[in-house]
């Protein structure tokens, strides 16, 4: 079959993905409470600054809270079939533990979903995306505390009930495995001196697994026909050499991620993790019924982000490279982005096949993109051919994976409009098809400007990928 004959499925959900805390702004508007993002001025890998003395771009974002109609119109012009977003927990329950929700917060998302419906854009909603209520950290210890499961379930049931006629696709947690790599962002975890941090992280992960299973159960009850997925930060790991020890190291690194989808998609803890817990003196406290709940609350699909691959080596001398929350050995066969993230389109095809082979469930690529420094020229254009090249090469591999037999719901590239970077809390690192005239000091007109990639992606969607 020739290249042009390889089509994406009918009804494929083309679109883009964002997170509330990275673009909404209005961080105190209409009763919203403070979140973990609101005290993270230097990004998710840095310790929080609860004094809030540092300027925090998350506070203002790109003012999507007030400009969402303008932005959604631009997404519609590109032809979006889907838009992945998150609901800010602190807009609905400012402290996280209230009984009654904040009506103004609920109304904002009602209006947002209505605007999407006007253009026939399917919302794909992440329930919790890197911004849990700060009060749940201060008063309960974040996801270390089993009590937070109750608060999350109440939040999930509230939004399911409110938006049951407006949202079909949901995800329970964004990049749930991030609790191991950025514990404050991923789980609201702060550690005391001498505390077994790994134990606390995996205990927090267990509580999130239980919360996710409860949400799946609630979503299916409240919204018949709903699709509720998990979401992991995925990457494939290659062995540096054919040495068996390198192969084993690569497998072990992949398992750090796959453990999270194993539990949520298969409904039980895998044997390799039980051994890991034994070997590392980690003891997970489970309540009676937890194992059955995990079994009964498996997800309908696997959502995932993919930005780069990694290499594992048992040789400590090899040069390391940075990436999305992790670092690995530098791959000499790959180019890198300006932030050192290695660019590997073939790795996306490998991940798609790996996940589909492993779970036999539908997949959904809900993040993929290139962060780069874009230059706004004097004539008001942004020539971002490097972004087009990145996305095109990845989508060509996605099409090959579909030919391999992978069942794929859709593709929502990360940051269809420039927003605040999660990893570094800056606007200099841009992902969008739409340029936002705002810098990392918060200066600029905040005007929206179409980049060259805007027109490229519009054609990709119009042709259902045949233009690739």
From TrEMBL:
Coiled coil: none annotated. The keyword Hydrolase applies. Keywords: Glycosidase, Hydrolase. GO terms for cellular component: cytosol. InterPro entries: GH, GH_1_N_CS, Glyco_hydro_1, Glyco_hydro_1_AS. It comes from the Bacteria. It is an enzyme of class 3 (hydrolase). Its EC number is 3.2.1.86. GO terms for biological process: carbohydrate catabolic process. Pfam families: Glyco_hydro_1. PROSITE patterns: GLYCOSYL_HYDROL_F1_1, GLYCOSYL_HYDROL_F1_2. GO terms for molecular function: 6-phospho-beta-glucosidase activity. The active site is at 367 (nucleophile). Gene3D superfamilies: Glycosidases. Belongs to the glycosyl hydrolase 1 family. This is 6-phospho-beta-glucosidase.
